[in-house]
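Appendix C: a fully annotated inverse folding record. The material below is reproduced so that readers can follow the format used throughout the book. The structure is listed first as tokens, followed by the designed sequence.
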């Protein structure tokens, strides 16, 4: 079967991302060169056990690879210190060695959690990501950020740890719930808005094909997003500069997610969708970009069925509560608020001097937020 390859160029930590329809059924063929021994441990989202696991196992068994399966309950709560501890113990009982490869099979939750387990177990074992949500295929499986949530905040324990390879099968997306697909679409739009106006225009005409899960269009758009992110990560692996641009919409998104309470009422990609429109609105308000940009982005996302204001998820929030979450953002520096803003479609900049009053005005301009 044909597939596309995107190389993440990080010196000796470089690795390939393979993308195609049906590549999971040829997993051992594609992964063989990236395995350190004939033994793998599969960390799998429970939701995939009845749907996609057999495809992977058939391929592994055909090449006589030895495997164990460790299931992870679906959902963000599995990205916890408690789940991490229990899974480390479960994996250690299987007696792995430093050449055993951990395969993380699931969305961003299993990827972030499994990546952190791989980074720390036996002081580091190799791992390979098999991402199965649109969000994880276009974003979280690229760049080596791994981590866990704590009671103080999300993603506050973690490590930069690169996989040996990533294998993306667009076929797995056929079973993804619509809402999760749209959440992933929010992150796709982000790449156009922050760095490539032409790609944004391409999305204008290909949006329907992506949402209809047309395999060739999915493979094309996933490959584009992976290479866009890979290029930025190759320049700035540990986010000391340019990589921060990938956080477009995320300062707002994190505040919205915190207010929503991580209970599934607002998915991360949905928060990013609303957050991008807010970032564009704030950019207009600060005279950084021309008027109309926020509306253009809003209209595109709305047409895709992505939420574009808190009212779209039936929220009714007080602005002070939201502002409280900005104070806690780990990207703040010296009391100044850091935002990724827009000078134009496709041109994002980092601003470290944004006044609280401007953020407040932007928030109040959105339905579902009141004084
Ligand atoms: N490391 C990074 O750079 C990075 C970037 C963005 C997001 N993230 C993290 O990613 C996580 C979100 O990832 P996500 O959106 O993939 O969430 P997720 O892993 O929770 O998956 C979403 C839902 O889809 C289900 N699912 C997964 N694959 C499926 C399939 N093929 N068919 C049917 N159902 C399927 C899961 O069981 C879950 O219920 C967050 O924890 C976020 O912090 C990390
Ligand atoms: Zn994100």
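Designed amino acids, in order:
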């Amino acid at each position: 079967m044909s597939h596309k390859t995107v190389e993440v160029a990080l010196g000796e930590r470089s690795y390939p991302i393979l993308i195609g329809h049906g590549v999971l059924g040829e997993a051992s063929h594609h992964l063989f060169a990236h395995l350190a021994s004939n033994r793998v441990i599969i960390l799998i989202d429970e939701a995939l056990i009845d749907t996609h696991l057999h495809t992977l196992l058939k391929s592994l068994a055909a090449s006589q690879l030895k495997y164990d399966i460790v299931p992870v309950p679906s959902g963000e709560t599995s990205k916890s210190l408690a789940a991490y501890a229990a899974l480390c113990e479960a994996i250690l009982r299987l007696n792995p060695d430093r050449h055993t490869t951990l395969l993380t099979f699931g969305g961003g939750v299993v990827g972030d959690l499994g990546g952190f387990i791989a980074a720390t177990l036996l002081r580091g074992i190799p791992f390979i990501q098999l991402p199965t949500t649109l969000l994880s295929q276009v974003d979280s499986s690229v760049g080596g950020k791994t981590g866990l949530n704590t009671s103080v905040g999300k993603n506050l324990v973690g490590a930069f740890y690169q996989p040996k390879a990533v294998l993306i099968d667009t076929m797995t997306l056929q079973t993804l719930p619509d809402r999760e697909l749209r959440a992933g679409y929010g992150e796709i739009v982000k790449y156009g808005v922050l760095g490539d106006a032409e790609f944004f225009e391409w999305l204008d005409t290909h949006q329907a094909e992506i949402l209809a899960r047309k395999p060739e269009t999915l493979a094309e758009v996933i490959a584009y997003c992976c290479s866009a992110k890979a290029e930025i990560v190759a320049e700035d692996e540990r986010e000391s500069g340019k990589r921060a641009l990938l956080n477009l919409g995320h300062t707002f998104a994190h505040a919205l997610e915190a207010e929503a309470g991580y209970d599934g009422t607002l998915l991360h990609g949905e928060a990013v969708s609303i957050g991008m429109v807010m970032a564009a609105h704030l950019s207009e308000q600060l005279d950084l970009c021309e008027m109309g940009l926020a509306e253009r982005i809003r209209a595109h996302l709305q047409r895709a069925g992505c939420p574009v204001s808190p009212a779209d998820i039936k929220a009714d929030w007080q602005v002070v509560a939201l502002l409280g979450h900005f104070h806690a953002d780990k990207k703040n520096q010296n009391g100044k608020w850091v935002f990724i803003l827009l000078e134009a479609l496709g041109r994002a900049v980092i601003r470290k001097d944004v006044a609280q009053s401007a953020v407040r005005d932007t928030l109040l301009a959105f339905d579902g937020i009141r004084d």
